[in-house]
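Q: How would the structure tokens look for this protein?
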Amino acid sequence: MEITLATVHVRRSAQAVPLAAGCLAAYLPEPLRCKVQLLDFFADQEVSTVVRTILDGKPELVAFPVYVWNRVQVAAVAREISRQQPAIRLVAGGPEAGGDPERLAAAADWSALVIGEGEELFAQLVEAWSTDDEPKSEIPGVIFPGHPAASTSDPRPPLDLEKLPSPWLSGLLAPTPQGGVVWEVSRGCAFGCDYCYEAAGHQKVRSHSRERLRAELELFTQIGVSQVWVLDATFNYPPQRGVELLELLLETAPQLHYHLEAKVDFVDPQTASLLSRLSCSLQLGLQSTDSKVLSAVHRHLDLDILNEKIHLLEAYGVIYGFDLIFGLPQDSYSGFIRSLDTSLHFSPNHLHIFPLAILPGTRLAQQRDRHGLVAQPAPPYEIIRSPSWSEQDLQRARILAAAVDIFYNTGRAVAFFPALLELFEIEPHHLFEELTDWALKQSDIDQAMFLASDQWNAHDAYRLQQGFLSWRLKQAGLNHLTTAVLDLLCYHFHYAETLLGPELAFANGTEREATDLWTNPWLRSKQLRLVPFAYEILDLQEMDEMSFAEFVELFRPVGSTALFVRRGGEVLCESLSDEMLRLLKESDGSKTPEQIFAGSLDQKTGRELVEFAVAEGLVQKPI
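A: Here is the predicted structure in token form.
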């Protein structure tokens, strides 16, 4: 039986890994596993393109993991496959199959829906279909639409993870050099938040064995992947489990960058210390900072504990971000902006804000009438209104969230944001409301573009920051500070771009042994940045210790050009002398240093300058 496992990802990114499909395929017996083809698609692709690609493989069975972001598209693909090739069996699984089986069953001509963890159930289906027309008896956890006598959605007990083969170690999923991997460490969640599907049915955590995890990490290291998204809803609960995982990462693959999700309550000194030794980012799900709002959805947060734990992370230099949800029961727009202000006063590295979604199968979906929640009946199931949230307030929150995403996240504002709040004597939400009003009055920005914040890149956000801050300073009568503010903005933009860019390598022996450094042409390296500033860059780097007013009073805009390079994972920023700047700017691959300086610099000094530039990799031999 020829089998296609088709995954429709939300977007093209390093996280677009068909992990669910790989797990299903890995569990199949070898004779069936070798008949499996994994195909990846994306939400922006046409249904006809997806269908054509699937049918080109001549499958007899096509299975889809179905999520909020792909449900509509997957159902359309399944209907078209049935229309063109009605003999092909179609299977759906994933959260949408478990949460909303009846409506999903009606959306296409499915042969079966798999409810819950799918490895064992899918294997039973495939083995049955490879020998018989239909399974001879009910399979608990599988629904056969149109065949009531052989249909059940009774939940199965959790799978024994020790029995599940690794899709990475089996070769079904192949990590790529400098790529990213989505790495499953555990399944389940110990916390039963009403809006979440993670703990549905089984409110506990099961972890993969240390031996399997170590072997997967060794594979990732051997291949040379760059970053790992750790799939563990709360990696640090209980805390000792988190400690053991971090120790494993440090022992086995400390050079990788990890993305982790944690619960702030369980951060302790040992965990913070281990995190500080890793290259990692930590996402903390606050959702709200109002304890009454959180209690309504069975979550808990103590602001005193939050303050203590964040200071602990900061003391160890751990990078962290927050999640917030707007639209929660018992919350309101005014409550949401209090949570926003509280969160931003901690200066998180990232703030992810999203609307409440009433996901099928969650406790919140079952209790929507009790809370008076009106939500979209189809994906993404976002809240439309509630007793404490009008449609207008939800739209205000949506626009405010976009402003935060563009200015703070994409614009990487964490380093200078507190200085702006102090300068304008303003709360964060007021600044973002002003940004929204200003941005939507610009001729090249409309509301739809603004709301599509995930489409903005760092350069777009930087230009918006420049325009808004120039306007805001003028409005406040602070024009005399504009040059200093824009210089600081420029510094942080190029610092971040350099940090995320390629490393500058030292020169190799061949370049150092060139016959004559002075009479050979050189080419400036593409891995460095030359950035002009109104102020001396060395003075700007001292601005953290003073206010903008103090800085302008103390320093004058004498001008400088800074060199930004990344080396050893660190950003180096140096002020350039006039001679070095001239050498770098004019080293275009055709001019020699002798021609560049044309008698304005004596040869001894010039040769020393060029020798340094060559040795440091700032200039290279033209190809």
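The CA atoms of residues 16 and 208 lie 22 Å apart.

The chain is about 40% helix and 15% strand.

Upvote if useful.
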